[in-house]
Amino acid sequence: MKIFVQPSLLSTTFISRSNPITVIVWVLDDDVYARPNKLCVQLWTNLKISSWSSIELDELDEEEQQQKIIGCDPDESYRVFKIVIPMVDIDEGWYEFTVRIKREAWEGWKWLSVNEGQNAKIFVSKSANSTGPREDLNRSIFYETIDEKKVRYSLQGDVDCWCVSSSVGSNHGQPIRINFGGIRNLIQAWWMIPITGISKLDIQHKDVLYILIQQSSGHYVSLIPMASDGCICSFRSDHKGGLILFIINDSGGDSDARFVVGRGNDPYITAKACMNFINEINGINSVKANSSIETKERFDYDHIGYCTYNGFEGREGQQPIFDVLSSLDTIGVHIGYFILDDGWQQVNKNRQLQKFEPKAELYPDGFKGIISNIKEKFPYIKYFGVWHTLWGYWNGVEPNSELSNAYRLERVNHSDEIIHLIIPQDIHKFYNDFYDYLKDQGVGMVKVDSQGSFDLIDYGQCRHRRWWKEYHDALEINSKEYFDNRIIYCMAHSPNIIQQVLSGSGSNDDMPINRPLFRDMFQSHHRFGEYHAAARAISGGPLYITDIPNKHNSGVLEKCIVNIPTFNTYTSASDSSHDASLSTKLSTKLPQRILRSENPALSSLSSLFLDSTKVDNLLQICNWNNKIGVLGLWNCRPHLLLDLFYLNDVYGFETNNIIGNGNNQQHKDSIGEYALYFFMNKQVRVVNSVKEPISIILKAEEFEIVTISPIDYSIGKSYNRYFTIKIASFGLIDKYNGSRAVISSEFISESVSSFNENGIVSTENRQGRIFYKVQLVGYGECGFYLDLNDGKLCDTKAYLGSKLLKNVKYDIDKKLLSIGLEKEDIENDGQRTERMLNQDMLKVELFLEIIVE
Questions:
Q1: In this structure, are residues 613 and 591 in contact, taking their beta carbons and an 8 Å threshold?
Q2: How far is the C-alpha of 761 from the C-alpha of 779, rounded, in Å?
Q3: Which residue of 159, 349, 667, 696 could cross-link 70, Cys pair, CB 3.0 to 4.6 Å?
């Protein structure tokens, strides 16, 4: 007997008294012979009265259970039990429940909570956001009174923000602790690890760089320590749960320790408001800073990349580089950038850098020869990058090397080791010389590791710890000059580095609430290769792999990348004035891109305060591609899970909830229909309400990606009878993030010509025909939800330009229309003179002709 409960046991649920709580229990009753007997399912809870009592759940009949569980074995049939409990008469406070089950033939109950502390917890609030956000800082967040002279207030939109500062002495670099007391009305908290679902802070021995809190009023509080003026701050707690600001003052004198607090009604808006406030404090234009970085990133990281970190298994030198690039090329994967990780530099046994040049025995001609050969053999590789640490190598520079003759060094105590670092006066010259050499060799980007190591220098060496700023300034200036900011930051979670991210030097992708989600490289052939690939595909961040040569899962990689048609321009050598737009032809050599969302992925609201590795809930991560939503679901538990999700739980749904086109457009205050496509299960589901529950079952180590597309409507006429066409575009359904390929989709008016293999359909011949146009990036299997009311679907034709496509299939049961856009279809699309989408990239225009009797 399999039993699943939502809300799950061990979870914590916040609910307002104005809303009811719904508890659902699924039971797979494998005792076929006992099924006629009544199965009694009860909540055992203290919700109704002060003492514990039972509440029986009602079993849904077959009609109520008509929506099948996605991913359920066809031979399995779950019985569903449900109860809706109003909260209006429940006092504010903490409650618990568990579930017990009994069959008539059983002597006793089967309890789902076996041990103490395994119940589900519920916090009932008087009403969501019942206390206004304009309360003063002391009463709304902290129990202890904070001197208002230490607080700088700012209203960021609808979010109240404060910067709390306190003057601290130098204390010779030793830690200083300021206790701000307990957090008021704390019911849940989240960190970057995360640590979740607690009612008091318990971070006595951790340096915490970001805290998000949900209060009993329904408000969200974001707390971020700052690093500035020689003070490095982080959060800890005392044994009672009081908030401690943990400070290292390396300034050599008195300085200000600061942290920012934001309080609002939305966790994500509150977090972003804190970022904006920090930029305001530091005098940084966040919009300008982020937009400039986005421009730099956009071209580079829309390609799939490769890093040697895990891939070479101890091998070094140019041969494994060619081995892995050749093996990827053989399976049709074109790497856009390549990163040579640790192992190429000349270092001593104390892990100190000796020379700029790579190891002579592994790279006898330096990098110049190998990079030239790589780009000749694999012309699609735009950048060859190399790895190094912020100090040059892990323990700095060798004091007796040729580098020590060019740059002055000092001896520093670091984590019980003696290291030698270049002094700040010479670090700009070091980076200038180093990057000048790398660029001359053909290197086009860098990955800089160990950026938090300055925090590990002994507290007493304040002067050396302050060098971090000069080092990072030198890195920033020279990486911009030589590599146009093509730089990957690694091991950059120290308060110093985080502060630079928060102060506007990072893009939106580095907001603390996003940062833990699905970053860095993975191996496609690994046991969890697809599990991680799918996560990175919807993350909005770069996607790069570290496969072992000749060990690839081509099926996984093909779902990450898309081939893009381009124009070849033919110009006469004797006629430089030739108009290139008149002689363009589609290239047969198609470059590749990853389908990268424009914004970073976020946890859905239901997953925000849950640790899905410890609680029986699916991890839910969401993103948006224009008006199409993407929801990723991951089972992080070692057993089967059955869970629910709702569309209005997908963050950003309200702001993206605009359905239809033209006169048929509906807005977020109306109820529309949505078509859902389940990537792994190949299923389609139509949802009529954002509050309709969708149940799904996933095995251990499994995932699902759900494309949520608003349904477009159009009314047509056939033989004096009107009909309504319903259609929703899913994009490329053979890709993890296939909806990112959709540029636009719309019904075309009858004045627009229809295409077939013989030419244009005449105006008189359009009875019962509806035309739909989709603009796409790349080719693959394009999927649509398609249905109609008051008519019979006779045929659906698809055209690429004027070419009638043959690979068109319609599954009438699923209402799924799939169209195969093959490479040959793109290549034979003929000469076209439309404006290019991006540089040499061509958008694919797909036309549907829907014929109704």
A1: no
A2: 26
A3: 696
Give 268-293 pLDDT, tens digit per residue: 999 999 999 999 998 877 554 444 33
pLDDT of residue 25: 95
Burial annotation 629-658 (CB, 10 A radius, 16+ → b, else e): bbbbbbbbbeebbbbbbbbbbbbebeebbe
The answer to whether the beta carbons of residues 605 and 651 sit under 8 Å apart is yes
Phi, psi (rounded to 5 degrees) for 842: -110, 135
How far is CA 451 from its chain centroid?
A: 23
Return the SS3 of 189.
Answer: strand
Cα 750 to its chain centre, rounded Å, is: 41
Of the ranges 389-403, 609-623, 705-719, the best mean pLDDT one:
389-403
d(CA 146, CA 169): 19
As a whole number of angstroms, the distance between CA 671 and CA 656 comes to: 14
Q: With cut-offs at 50, 70 and 90, classify the pLDDT of residue 631.
A: very high
Rg (CA), the chain: 30
The predicted pLDDT at position 288 comes to 47
List, in order of start, the domains of the chain with CATH numbers: 2-125 (2.60.40.10), 137-283 (no CATH), 294-484+516-558 (3.20.20.80), 599-710 (2.60.40.1180), 711-853 (no CATH)
Residue with tokens 């860095």: 520
DSSP-assigned states of every residue in 390-423? TTBSTTBB-TTSHHHHHS-EEEEEETTEEEEEE-
- Please compute the mean of the pLDDT values over residues 329-343 and round it to a whole number: 93
**Single pTM value for the model:** 0.89
Does the structure show a pLDDT above 90 at 135?
no
Q: Is 501 left (phi over 0), alpha (psi -120 to 50) or beta?
A: alpha
- As a whole number of Å, the end-to-end CA separation of the chain is 49
DSSP 183: B
Beta-strand runs (E) in 415-542: 417-422, 445-449, 487-489
